[in-house]
Amino acid sequence: MIAEIGHFALVLALCVALVQASVPLWGAARGNGALMALARPAAQAQFVLVLVAFLALMYAFASSDFSVFVVAENSHSTMPLIYKLAGVWGNHEGSMVLWVLILTFFGAGVATFGGNLPPSLQARVLSVQAMIGAGFFAFILFTSDPLARVLPPPADGRGLNPLLQDPGLASHPPMLYLGYVGFSMAFSFAVAALIEGRVDAAWARWVRPWTLAAWCALTLGIAMGSWWAYYTLGWGGFWFWDPVENASFMPWLAGTALLHSAIVVEKRDALKSWTILLAIVTFSLSLIGTFLVRSGVLTSVHAFATDPRRGVFILLLLVVAIGGSLLLYALRAPALQPSGLFAPVSREGALLLNNLLLASAAATVLIGTLYPLFLDAIGGPKISVGAPYFNMTFTPLMTPLLLAVVVGPFLAWKRADLLGALQRLWVAALAALAAALVTLYLHSGGPLLAVLGMGLAAWLVVGAFAELAERLKLLRAPWRESWQRARNLPRANYGMAFAHAGLGFTLAGIIAMTAWKVELIQVMHPGETVPLAGLSVRLDSVEPHSGANFEGQRATFTVSRDKRFVAAMFPEKRNFPVAGQDTTETAIHTSGFADIYAVLGDSDGKGGWTVRLYYNPLAPFIWFGAVVMVFGGLISLSDRRYRVGAPSRRRLPAGVATAPGD
Amino acid sequence: MRRRLIFILPALVFLGLVAAFYAGLDRDPQLVPSALIGKPVPQFALPALLDGNAGLKTADLKGKVVLVNVFASWCVPCRAEHPLLMRLAKEGLELDGINYKDKPEDAKLWLVNLGDPYKRIGSDLEGTVGIDWGVYGVPETFVVDRAGTIRFKQVGPLSPGVINDTIVPLVRQLSK
């Protein structure tokens, strides 16, 4: 019964979305306030309806109602409750419901808190948002019904993939979707602006917080996914350039570019049509990312079960959403005349460089991901594009970008003095040199590129905060004045410093882990000791160990340095009888600057066990950096100009609200 | 006019993407390419699964056309393809097995219950030889020619279609 209510709510949501997609749009064209006002309650109703459907599905999972097909396929009565609940989005159908839940949540947000938007813009934004919603509801109802019954119901379910039974992964998809779907707001604003034929600084201010929030969620989501891969898959790797990972990385690159180009629109009223295009492209990449892995067009190790029948529907949806918006762009964007002019060496110029490099990077990933498909489509050989391609193309694109990240904030708007900016960066340059020298001293055998990379990481971290110090006139002015400046500085400036510094931390982690990882794979017998990067690791014992829905073995390792105890580690091997799958539970001991990583392999049948031991220098920095980036994003999001005063159009000629010190 | 063209460009690029996606819809994701096709069989030597039998090593795969099947008792698709392997063995094709990350006692029970189509079976307890062969899931089946070169790889279970249309003709052609 509950499942049917949920199903009915989804059908109703589709009807509401269809009304919301058409009536307010027509009202905005006619200037009819009553019709436009319909958008707000409709958006709120959509959210409530989807919430009902989502809760119904969650109830079916929680109560192990195996007459619901999706539950029977993806849950099992012996699973812990938390994973039963996480099972809601651990499958294609349920994850689509989560997708629309977040979509309507954002829509309801604009309806509820967007009272200060001009009515016509709000109506159009909500209409576009409802169009996306309608497409998804139809997709869910016609091709992937989450609440379909199966008769007769099976006695028990097939269980959730044991790899997915993990707290990190349970929260990873919701974060990722918050990011993907959050970009739908930027998309809706862009399409609405194209319909209105008007893009100005105020528009950019409305778009930025949504983009920033989506970007934060996506950053965190990607970091969580990579962290999960690191500690669950037991390969000691953190990024595999797998199509699904690329699918989340492309919108991140485009979204980062959008975040920066919107600043130029806001402050300088330039790059308007480019920003609109980026908003469309970012969400399009999110859509492609969500769908490619489900349509059977691309395959990946962690794709959902694919169904070719869905493929055609998905393609149609992509054509309407992306093709439609790009067509609108082709028709309307030429009318958006830029008003702000700037010299190549200027803040705008730096942001444009950032955009060009990020867009090229996104295009590179897109080409790498789709190249096998293109080659196959024209009858070429079947190939797969792997990490070497991405490593080779990414480094030359990212190096100038990362160099410029530090310089950009030192440049003034309109026209800047590059030499002067560089002179003020001597501290960061010194830090970079010091970092490179220290690295060279510690790892004289390492690749030169990695040594330079560590210098680049230091350049980023120190440079980010040097910019802050410069603004506060730290050490140059009296403390009282610096303190006063610190209090008056917009939070967006602090946010930027943290976000850029976070990038430096992540870079340091990636480079150190790639260049100086120590790996040891061998058969060990209990009682045996092996050396690992200056540590000694002893295998004490391997004993049987079982849990609610698995059985397996647990090893005990003792790690010591110079006879002094460092850590005890307990990696496990688990076998899940219901799913017929084995998983490894890695044990990780971290000092904050390095990880010791242990995996228990198979028994050789003669008392020995295959073990894999890794020493991963600076590995925690990879995720720590991502958290710092998100922290910066959140600080920036709390900037008062997004809350107060910002959204009134007339009061805001371009370029007025620049930060002190500009 | 030229200015307008730039704005149409994104839509055109997308059109190209759609065409590729459409072509890709019918693509069989099972047909994942292998870097090893056309390369000689990797150097390996595996102990025998069944006591008293010979193991499986590189030299065994030279001199005649051989199918090498990677299987495990815990793998459901392997069970599905097993009758086809029995049929191939009955038709006189030489079939060798790599028992991948399996418990030997389970694998023996499997062969007793379902029949043993293999001439030789190597036991790859830790999956290390599987890595050399580029195995990323069981079952997988390789066709190795007389010179010991891998000529074909099937990822996932065999089907009557693949056997009749690809494997049997290939083996016949290579055996000439």
Describe the structure.
The complex is a heterodimer of chains A (662) and B (176). Helices cover 62% and strands 11% of the residues of chain A. With 662 residues, chain A is α+β, with helices and mostly antiparallel strands. In chain B, strand 6 and strand 7 form a beta hairpin. In chain B, the strands form 2 sheets. A 5-stranded mixed beta sheet of chain B has the order 5-4-3-6-7. In chain B, strands 1-2 form a two-stranded antiparallel sheet. Chain B starts with a helix and ends with a helix. Chain B is 40% helix and 18% strand. Chain B has a single domain, classed as Glutaredoxin (3-Layer(aba) Sandwich), CATH 3.40.30.10. By secondary structure, chain B is an alpha/beta fold. Chain B has 5 helices and 7 strands; from the N terminus they run H-E-E-E-H-E-H-E-H-E-E-H. At the A-B interface, helix 11, helix 12, helix 13 and strand 9 of A face helix 1 of B.
Outline:
Chain A is of the alpha+beta class and 662 residues long.
Silhouette of chain B: elongated
Category by helix and strand content of chain A: alpha+beta
The biggest beta sheet of chain B is recorded as: 5 strands, mixed
**What is the percentage of strand-forming residues of chain A?**
5-15%
Tell me the name of the CATH homologous superfamily of chain B: Glutaredoxin
Structural class of chain B: alpha/beta
Q: What's the order of the H and E elements of chain A?
A: HHHHHHHHHHHHHHHHHHHEEEEEEEEEEH
Total helical segments of chain B: 5
For the residues shown, what is the average pLDDT of chain B?
82
Text of the CATH class of chain B: Alpha Beta
Oligomer: heterodimer
Order of helices and strands of chain B: HEEEHEHEHEEH
Query: For the CA atoms, what is the radius of gyration of chain A?
Result: 27 Å
Low-confidence stretches of chain A: 300-305, 644-648, 650-662
The CATH topology annotation of chain B reads as Glutaredoxin
